[in-house]
Amino acid sequence: MERRSNPSFRKYRLAAYLLVAVIAAYTAFCHAVNTFIIPRVVIPKMRAYLESGVSEPLKISVGDIRFDPVSGFLFTDVRLYTKQGSPSDYIASSKAVDIDLVWHDLLFKRVTIRRFDMTDVDLNVYRGSDGKWNIGPLARMGMGDASAKQFGGFKVTVRELRLLGGKARYSDRMAPGNSIERVYDIASMSVTGSEDGCRLMLATKSTGAKKGSLSLFLEYSDGGNGEPSGRGTVRIKTPNINEYWSYYIDDMIKPWEIEVGAADLKADISFSREMFRLDGVYGLKDAALNYGDLRISGDASIKYVFEYSKNKASSYADLLIKDMKVCAGDNAMLSGAECRAYIDKEGVEISAIEGQAFRKPVSYKGMFIFGEPRRLSIDGQICGIRNTLDMEISSRGKASAEMQVFTSYSKLAIKAGSQDLKDLSFDIGMAGDMNLADIGSVIGMTKRKMTGKASVSGTLSGELDRMGSFNGKADMKVDGFTLLDMTPKSFSMQAVVKDGLLDGEVPKFPLYGGTAAAKIRFDTGLSPQKWGFEYDIEKCDLRSLSLDDARLSGMKGILDANLACSGRLGRPDAAIGGGYIRIVDCNIKGVPIFVAIEKGMDSVIKDFDMPDFKEIKAAFSVAKKEIDARFACQSPLLKLEMSGDCDFAGNVDMTAGANVSRLSPIKTARQILIPATLGFDFVKDGIVVKISGKWPVI
Question: Is 279 exposed, middle or buried (0-12, 13-18, 19+ CB in 10 A)?
């Protein structure tokens, strides 16, 4: 029987032959591409392209180009540099570069590189003495299909350039005789082609104890009509910003110096051929502005705008400083403050400075004007007392200033000059009239009325941060001085400062039929500063004093007293001193506080009558925030002794003993309440009184 071919079988066999033929043809094609087209056509074309300069503005040098059918193209010893440079003056270099090529485009005479990956890169960014950055031409680098270039009949396209790891070297050599150079680790960098331009993204990081980072995003477009434009964002976090201030800012702000603990800087950028704009927000932690020993510190936040358009540049900034402190050496002049200001090319407009100076509230505003000379004008208040300051500062470190302190009734003018502002040297002259009621409000005398007028004049010189260098003198004449409703008094005061040691004296002046005098000493050379004073009263008539204060009504006697004390400023526990009081021919019957005691004693001793004392003596000492006192009162019928202590808060703990053997018989004792608590106990021929509690405030 004749065998016939199965038609279906013939079809499968034909398909198999065709598949084998295709595979054979593809294998032959790949072999031809790998052994002939790539090494003899593509690689020479690539090298010729790179060496032709068609890749302008970048030039590329390659040590060797190898091809592996599995891994693809591998470039070795690759360097990217600008046309103006040379192979030794490169932008980036890499030992190995991997090329991701679109193979089928070769059939259509297109060389399409998806990615140009550079590993272990050495990125070199610098600015020369001519002011030009070597990476400037990158802004004109064409990437993507829209920027494809013709060469040797091939259309060459690079869609993405990537830097994968390595080092970024940054240097600026514009300033004559000075340069700054830093090295960072590259996290990643890519330049990607877009429809009409390219997109740049860069991220760096720092290693070691002081870590920081930089990130950059930039989109660039040529607009298709030769009108380039772009936008982007840059952010820098670094604890090393001081290394850049010294190079970029020092010359701008001299003679001031700036230092920052850590910085977080962010800016949005937009630009075109004739326009550039930067909107930045800068956070500066532990920032300080120094001039000699004068220091302004705090945490700053700055909103900054820079614009360049039609050959004109302008910039301005909003500044906010929190926890602001102003110091002259170790001496704090302002603390816990907040400052808000506006800065432009003309100067600084200070809208508010609010804080504390010498533990008193402060509020200021003003203006600092750039130029030669620089000018500072501020106007504000300390404890409700207004003061103004106008200052001129020359570039040679000299300064002059005029300050006025005034209220509705007071005005004090101070003129100052400095021949060396960096060392904070100064000479001051002052003169004016003051209402003492204004001074009373400053020192917190809300319950005690103080009035009078004072005329002041004097001079002072030295270095602001070294109080031990102060020298000068002052005179004050006071008229109509009153305190606690006393009869108005007049006196004068002189003060001399020598090497930081102030000695002040109020010479003897009439006081209620007697005299009074005072001395004060303040040593500014120590920290905290040491103070001391002495107050002396002779033959003061208490009857005249009682006429001024109803709480002392009925009192009489002749008073001699002396009080001396010393301590350290801000350290009440360090106060130490003592004194005495002696009153003769004394009558205290009508004084309200003693009337209360007399009534209490009457409940114990029938018909008790406070006697006239021939003499009252008291001695006391001050130490460890306590006043230790001893009293002795003598009369024909009663002898009274008292001792104990009272602290600075008014807490009393005292014991009084009285000999009452010559008085009426003693009744049963009981406790009574007056401003302090009295407790009575009995001994032979006498009575013991315990006094404890809170002593009344006069």
Answer: middle
pLDDT band with cut points at 50, 70 and 90 for residue 672: very low
Element (H, E) at 253: helix 250-253
Buried b / exposed e over 14-34, threshold 16 CB at 10 Å, is eeeeeeeeeeeeeeeeeeebe
| Better pLDDT: 604 or 450 | 450
Rg (CA), the chain: 45
Q: Produce one character per residue of 576-589: b if its CB has 16 or more CB atoms within 10 Å, e if not.
A: ebbbebbbeebbbe
The b-or-e profile of 539-557 (16+ CB within 10 A means b, else e) is: ebbbeebbbeeeebeebbb
Whether the CB-CB separation of 691 and 601 falls below 8 Å is answered with: no
Question: Could you give the 3-state DSSP secondary structure of residue 608?
Answer: coil
Mean pLDDT of 553-578: 84
Distance between CA 505 and CA 473 in Å, rounded?
A: 12
Rounded-to-integer distance, Cα 672 and Cα 589, Å: 19
Residue type, 114: R
Q: How far apart are CA 581 and CA 8, in angstroms?
A: 138
Answer whether 114's CB lies under 8 Å from 131's CB. no
User: Is the peptide bond preceding residue 373 cis, with omega within 30 degrees of 0?
Assistant: yes
Whether residue 402 contacts residue 382, with contact meaning beta carbons closer than 8 Å, is answered with no
Instruction: Give me the sign of the Cα torsion angle 466, 467, 472, 474.
Output: positive
| 611 in Cβ contact with 635 (< 8 Å) | yes
What distance in Å separates the CA atoms of residue 601 and residue 607, rounded to the nearest whole number? 9
Number of neighbours of residue 150 by Cβ within 10 angstroms? 10
Q: Which of 687, 696, 694, 691 is nearest to 601 (CA)?
A: 687
With bands split at pLDDT 50, 70 and 90, how would you rate the model's confidence at 665?
A: very low
Lookup: tokens for 458? 């004097």
CA distance 283 to 601: 72
For 210, what's the count of Cα atoms within 13 Å in the CB-facing half-sphere?
11
Of 535, 536, 538, 576, nearest to 559 by C-alpha is 538
Angle at 539 between CA 534 and CA 543, to 5 degrees: 115
Q: Helix, strand or coil for residue 625?
A: coil
Six-digit token string for 637: 């019928």
Asked if 34 and 40 count as a contact pair (C-beta separation under 8 A), the reply is: no
- Residue 254 has what pLDDT? 61
Between CA 352 and CA 379 the distance in angstroms is 10
Q: In angstroms, what CA-CA distances link 127 with 80, 299, 433, 497?
A: 16, 32, 61, 56
Contact 627, 662 (CB under 8 A): no
- Adjacent-strand bridge partners of 277: 270, 307
